[in-house]
């Protein structure tokens, strides 16, 4: 009898606390086009798999009459559940409770689930929807953020960390997502910035809306802070599940193997790749043509479009693709594209994902803005990431591989395990046009009709050097292959690399050009 | 979604002309201009707290031109070399963005 009463009491308590900020606050949340924190967790996890921790935690603030306030769960929901029947840890800030503001106990709940995820070696998913630090709790809020950042860093490269921005994420709060592996944003809902529009207006007199300052599009296209852009929360949750299917649960495992599938699009190179190396095409068509089911999950699709990164599968095994994109900026390397690719390469290396590099690029982007933006420093990240990576590294050179870019794009010289080139590959110190202008400067200048001689010299250079055979003669590439053989070579290379051993000298850590 | 027949632009790298699309960021990039030493520009957005000079005044290197308050700091803007104030473009109390010409000197 008494047990039954206790159980009823427990249920009543749970029900009350699980309402978060109450009906009215929930109505407001829904009116903003947002799901509640609890709905979000349920949408991401397998059905009925969520186990909540710390439901009854209460805040400890005493100043500013806070002792009279009840904040259910202290504005954050934490717990465990499964995705594809595999365990994950998750937290979701609850905007209906004091605007999801972060106080001491709120932060303790988050760090508790982070510690749990790291100890159990399972992925951590964090859903951010918070007005920021709880000012009434003063320096305790700051301490809370710091403790979260510390754990993000400690877990980096050990367990996958995914941040989902489903509301405001402002001030110090932005740095937790920034330290994690993948950041998801949703149009009109996500807002990330260090200082908001009102502060910017009062201090600097610049007027800008939240969306223009730090909306989902801004972070997907301009800043590169976000990795996945969605138009709705539901689309965002699908993207998370799709990503999770490609990555391993921790850094000691390999990604889950899927049953091998043939690509659905056939690799009809004559149709996709123009033979004139100056004409564009979409490199993603080639990626799909060599991937199982022609499935490709692109990451940072709208940022630095001149390089394409993302996951696909070959014979059921996850691979990370890094590919120059001739469709945008001729596929040049620049600050943003180097930065984008380098971080992805390090992700793949941390989580045992082989890297397939598809190369077709004319070199580095010329310009004062690039030089002054530090293209040396950013470009070096790419060299560092490729050289450092010990996972299987395969390169296929499709057309242009000129100059410094040739070295940077996982060349043999940076430790590539397999380098293939199509017969259309041009591996040279620079493009024929530029090279002819330098090598034959005198002949061209002294000729009676310089344009004619220049043309002739360009052709000469093309004939001699704009091909894969000069590099092949030195063993810098392993094999010149027919384009239609590409997938077969990738399959072979991957199976050969299954037990790859490649050690680096023991060190605490390197010093990459951050 | 992308348009089906994109309008490719010409893009030159090492004398070779490529057909490709520009990114928004590339199109909106700022063109570099050689800084003009006779223009004193705001290096940080802020408020002009006080003007220390008048038009036509002779000023020695290192002397105060104006005080620009930004990020709760009062920044003294100094004369870069001996010269004369040609024109003052701001007045006390105004808020200015970054990179605005505050004073022209000669």
Automatic annotation (TrEMBL), chain A:
One GO process term, biological-process aspect: carbon fixation
CoA carboxyltransferase C-terminal domain span: 259-496
Keywords, sorted A to Z: Transferase
Span of domain CoA carboxyltransferase N-terminal: 3-259
Listed GO MF terms: acetyl-CoA carboxylase activity; propionyl-CoA carboxylase activity; transferase activity
Any one GO cellular component localisation term in the record: acetyl-CoA carboxylase complex
Database matches in PANTHER family: PROPIONYL-COA CARBOXYLASE BETA CHAIN (PTHR43842), PROPIONYL-COA CARBOXYLASE BETA CHAIN, MITOCHONDRIAL (PTHR43842:SF2)
Family: Belongs to the AccD/PCCB family.
UniProt-recorded name of the protein: Propionyl-CoA carboxylase beta chain
Automatic annotation (TrEMBL), chain B:
Sequence ranges assigned to domain Lipoyl-binding in this UniProt record: 31-106
Record bears the keyword Flavoprotein: no
InterPro entries, alphabetized: Biotin_Carboxyl_Carrier/Decarb, Biotin_lipoyl, Single_hybrid_motif
Keywords, alphabetical: Biotin
Domain of life where this protein originates: Bacteria
Entries under CDD domains matching the protein: biotinyl_domain (cd06850)
Pfam families: Biotin_lipoyl
The keyword Chloroplast appears for this protein: no
Designated name of the protein: Biotin-dependent enzyme
């Amino acid at each position: 009898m008494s047990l039954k009463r206790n159980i009823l009491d427990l249920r009543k308590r749970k029900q009350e606390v699980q309402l978060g900020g109450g009906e009215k606050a929930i109505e407001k949340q829904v009116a903003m086009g947002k799901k509640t924190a609890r709905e979000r967790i349920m949408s991401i996890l397998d059905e009925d798999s969520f186990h909540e921790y710390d439901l009854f935690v209460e805040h400890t603030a005493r100043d500013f009459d806070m002792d009279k306030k009840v904040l259910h769960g202290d504005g954050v929901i934490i717990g465990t559940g499964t995705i594809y029947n595999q365990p994950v840890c998750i937290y979701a800030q609850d905007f209906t409770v004091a605007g999801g503001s972060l106080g001491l106990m709120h932060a303790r709940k988050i760090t508790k689930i982070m510690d749990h995820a790291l100890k159990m070696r399972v992925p951590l998913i964090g859903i951010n929807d918070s007005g920021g630090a709880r000012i009434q709790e003063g320096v305790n809020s700051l301490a809370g953020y710091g403790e979260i950042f510390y754990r993000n860093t400690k877990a980096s490269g050990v367990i996958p960390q995914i941040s989902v921005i489903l509301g405001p994420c402002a001030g110090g709060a932005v740095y937790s997502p920034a330290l994690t592996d993948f950041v998801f944003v949703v149009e009109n809902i996500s807002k990330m910035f260090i200082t908001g529009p009102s502060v910017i207006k009062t201090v600097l007199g610049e007027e800008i809306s939240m969306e223009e300052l730090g909306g989902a599009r801004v972070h997907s296209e301009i800043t590169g802070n976000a990795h996945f852009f969605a138009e709705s929360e539901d689309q965002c949750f699908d993207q998370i599940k799709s990503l999770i299917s490609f990555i391993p649960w921790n850094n000691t495992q390999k990604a889950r193997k899927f049953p091998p599938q043939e690509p659905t699009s056939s690799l009809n190179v004559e149709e996709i790749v123009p033979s004139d190396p100056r004409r564009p095409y979409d490199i993603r068509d080639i990626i799909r043509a060599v991937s199982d089911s022609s499935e490709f999950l692109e990451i940072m699709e709208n940022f630095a479009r001149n390089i394409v990164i993302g996951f696909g599968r070959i014979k059921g095994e996850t691979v990370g693709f890094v590919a120059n994109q001739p469709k945008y900026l001729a596929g040049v390397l620049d600050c943003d594209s180097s930065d984008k690719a380098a971080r992805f390469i390090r992700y793949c290396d941390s989580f045992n994902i082989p890297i397939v590099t598809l190369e077709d690029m004319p070199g580095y982007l010329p310009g004062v803005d690039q030089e002054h933006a530090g293209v040396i420093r950013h470009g070096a990240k790419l060299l560092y990431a490729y050289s450092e990576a010990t996972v299987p590294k395969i390169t296929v050179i499709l057309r242009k591989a000129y100059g410094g870019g040739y070295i940077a794009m996982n060349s043999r010289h940076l430790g590539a395990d397999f380098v293939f080139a199509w017969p259309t590959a041009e591996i040279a110190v620079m493009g024929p046009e530029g090279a002819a202008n330098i090598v034959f400067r005198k002949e061209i200048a002294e000729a009676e009709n310089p344009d004619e001689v220049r043309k002739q010299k360009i052709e000469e250079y093309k004939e001699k050097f704009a091909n894969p055979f000069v590099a092949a003669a030195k063993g810098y590439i392993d094999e010149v292959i027919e384009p239609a053989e590409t997938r077969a070579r990738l399959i072979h290379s991957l199976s050969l690399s299954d037990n790859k051993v490649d050690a680096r000298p023991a060190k605490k850590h390197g010093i990459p050009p951050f | 979604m992308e348009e089906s027949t994109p309008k490719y632009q010409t893009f030159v790298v090492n004398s070779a002309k490529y057909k490709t699309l520009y990114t928004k960021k590339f199109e909106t990039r700022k063109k570099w201009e050689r800084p003009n030493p006779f223009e004193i520009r705001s290096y940080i957005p802020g408020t002009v707290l006080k003007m220390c000079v008048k038009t036509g005044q002779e000023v020695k290197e290192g002397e105060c031109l104006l005080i620009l308050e930004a990020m709760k700091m009062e920044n003294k803007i100094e004369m870069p070399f001996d010269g004369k104030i040609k024109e003052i473009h701001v007045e006390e109390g105004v808020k200015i963005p970054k990179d605005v010409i505050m004073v022209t000197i000669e």
